Structure formats: C-alpha cells, structure tokens
TrEMBL record, chains A, B:
It holds the Pfam family GST_C. It catalyses: RX + glutathione = an S-substituted glutathione + a halide anion + H(+). Belongs to the GST superfamily. Tau family. Residues 3-82 form the GST N-terminal domain. This is glutathione transferase. It is found in: Cytoplasm, Cytosol. PROSITE patterns: GST_CTER, GST_NTER. InterPro entries: Glutathione-S-Trfase_C-like, Glutathione-S-Trfase_C_sf, Glutathione_S-Trfase, Glutathione_S-Trfase_N, GST_C, GST_C_Tau, Omega/Tau-like, Thioredoxin-like_sf. Its EC number is 2.5.1.18. Gene3D superfamilies: 1.20.1050.10, Glutaredoxin. Residues 88-208 form the GST C-terminal domain.
Length: 218, 218
C-alpha cells in the first residue's frame, strides 16, 4: 500500500514551509491542504488538539505536530535519500542546538518586527540582527549550516529567509550589510528546487505582512 | 582511552537533573561540577558562550548544551543500555512532542508559581494544573510515559516531579487530588536508582525555593 501523506499548512507560515521543503527534499508525494487559521478545520482540531496549530503531517492517518519535529520524523521515515540530520551524535546535537536557538532567539524578535512599532520594534530589530550575527558566525565559510549539504538547520532558517524581505520592509532596515555571508547562504537555500517549489512569491509575503501589520499596529 | 565526561550543573535545577539521570541510566561515570550561577566559571562561559547556562555536558572536551539535547546525545552515544527514546519514528516524534510541551506549557507556569504572587500566581497555578492534566491524559494507565520503560518524557518530567513539593508549598495548593495517576507515575520515577542518586532532598528544594521567592516577591 502506498503511503498517504497529507500536510495541513498555511501558505506564508515559516513553520509550515519547513515541512514542505523536507518532504520535497525526500521526494515524498503529499497532499497539501491549506488551512484557514481563523476558522480551523475539524481535521486540524482533531489531529492537533493540544496546540491546534499548523503544520500537521498526517502519515497514514497518524498526526505529527510541531514543525522541526515533523522534519525530523520525515528524515527518519524516508531515511534513504538526502539525510537532513548528520549521523554523528555530536554533530546531531549541534544541529539540534542551533535549531533551538533559531526557534527562540530568531523567532521572538522576527515576530515583533512585523507586529509592533516604535521602541518595541527597534529593540526587536536589534535583537534580530544580533541573533543573525551569531548564526553567521556559526555558519563561518560553509555554504550551508549542514556543511556542503543543505540540512536540518538550513530548513529551520529557510522559513525566516523567505520572510527576510517582508521583515526588512516592515522594519525599514537591511539585513545583508550586517550579515553578508548568512545572506549568501540564504540565497543559495532559496534557489534549491525543494525550496523554490515550497516558498511563496516574496512579494506576496510582503503584502500579507503589511495586511496583518495593520491589524496589530493600529 | 576512557571517556572523559564532565557535567556542569547546579543542584536544584530541573534541567541539570535530566542530564544526571540520563548518565546514571546509562551507567556512565562522570565528574559533577557545581556551578555558582551568580559567578559563572570561565569553563561554563567558554563551553556555552551562547546561553551561558547549565547543564553543559563536556564529553572528551566537546560541549553539548540544552538539557534535552544533552539527554538525546547521551542516548545516542551510549546506545547499548536502557534506550531512552523509542526506535520507531512515530513514537520518537510523539516523545519529542511531549518534551516540547513540557518545556513550554509546564515550564512557564511552574516558573511563575515560585516567583510571583497574587493574581499572576493564581493564573500560573491554574495553567500548571491544566498542563499536568493534559499530561495525565497522555499518560493514561501506563506506568511511565515511556510505556513499561522509564524514558525520554519521564526524564523531562522528573525535573518537575522533584519540584512538586516546593511548587505546592509556594503556591499553597495540591497536585495529587487533581492528577492522581500522574502523581503515581511521579512517585515511581522518583524511586528509581538513577533518580534517587540524582535528585536532592525535597526539603532542601523547598528551602531553596522560599529563599529565592523572597528575592522575587518583595
């Protein structure tokens, strides 16, 4: 029996896109189902009753929730192609460390850049750049966080890379002069087939960001 | 050459204790080094320059940071004894999901119970019990979250189990009537050799909690 793989997702989500990219890196066929987050589907509520959030990967009827948990699950189930996590325990621990860093130290200011203004937004921009600089220093002169290969940490960051333009426009600042090598890696990631096929048009994200910004920053 | 394993830790830490327990489950000899968190050692600052937090596991000179990342590293390196994560990808994803739940939905209110008072504390107590009830429902009638075996999620929770008495005394409430089967599992966990040898005397934690509470709740 062929695998049935369904992804509950929301197009501009930096978390949802991680699951899309991981599935495409592995060449897994899946059914994409767009969620309306203002009126969540009964299936989403049933499959993720704890957090009620996308992405949810439903594999042969069983749900996996939380984006990087989904990516790790995909990596373990479809282990024959494009490994996303390294096999060495120390390198795996390092990759998990940086993903956790991204999910706390990048997520929090990134979220505030589009949803706040004034001093709060200025502080968020400073924290965002600080976090990106730490990542740039970790990246060093490697093409990807995964070394020569696009991997776990790169997938985690690509959700933010696809929002870079929207973040810059909402915050009226530039990332590239502060983090040139991170930006070069971002461009490399955004050109991959798995990513091109998963990421929306940046202009659409900018438009979406300003639309929700209006609601949060009245 | 024998492995050199050093743990930078702080005795009442619900995070540090996770690493201690995992090492003892695996029968790994290690050197425990107590940190003074008001005056962190040069070694801690060197080994965890990003977060500057305990626990840090230093294995043959190389640091691993973030408690559950440390536990997973230990599980992968010393894989021959007492597996902590299941081998099935779906069950692994479920275990990681619940650990993430604990590190967000249990951590946040638990932290506020000893560090706040009045309405904020009341709200935290309510959220704490709600989160524990969700965990109790996930536990079901299994002896451990790991099923018949003490595992990854149990280790994550044991840091909170050892603080239960302090939380109850700081918040003037009782956990057992609300979550009787979770409490039964907690008691089971707290009796394991690996845990008995890792967890401080509950009275000492209560004393510590009231000492720091005085600083936060003036």
């Amino acid at each position: 029996m062929a695998d049935e793989v369904i992804l509950l997702d929301f197009w501009p989500s930096p978390f949802g896109v991680r699951a899309r990219i991981a599935l495409r890196e592995k060449g897994v066929e899946f059914e994409y189902r767009e969620e309306n987050l203002r009126e969540k589907s009964p299936l989403l509520l049933q499959m993720n009753p704890v957090h009620k959030k996308i992405p949810v990967l439903i594999h042969n009827g069983k749900p996996v929730c939380e984006s990087m948990n989904v990516v790790q699950y995909i990596d373990e189930v479809w282990s024959d192609k494009n490994p996303l996590l390294p096999s060495d325990p120390y390198q795996r621990a390092q990759a998990r460390f940086w993903v956790d860093f991204i999910d706390t130290k990048v997520y929090e200011p990134a979220d505030k850049i589009w949803s706040t203004k004034g001093e709060v937004q200025e502080k968020a921009k400073k924290e965002y750049i600080e976090a990106l600089k730490i990542l740039e220093s970790e990246l060093g002169n490697k093409p990807y966080f995964g070394g020569d290969n696009f991997g776990f940490v790169d997938i985690a960051m690509t959700g933010y890379y696809m929002w870079f333009e929207a973040s810059e426009k909402c915050g009226n600042f530039s990332i590239e002069p502060e983090c040139p090598t991170l930006m070069a890696s971002a461009k490399r990631c955004l050109q991959r087939d798995s990513v091109v096929n998963s990421v929306p048009d940046p202009e659409k994200i900018v438009e979406f960001a300003f639309k929700i910004r209006k609601i949060y920053c009245v």
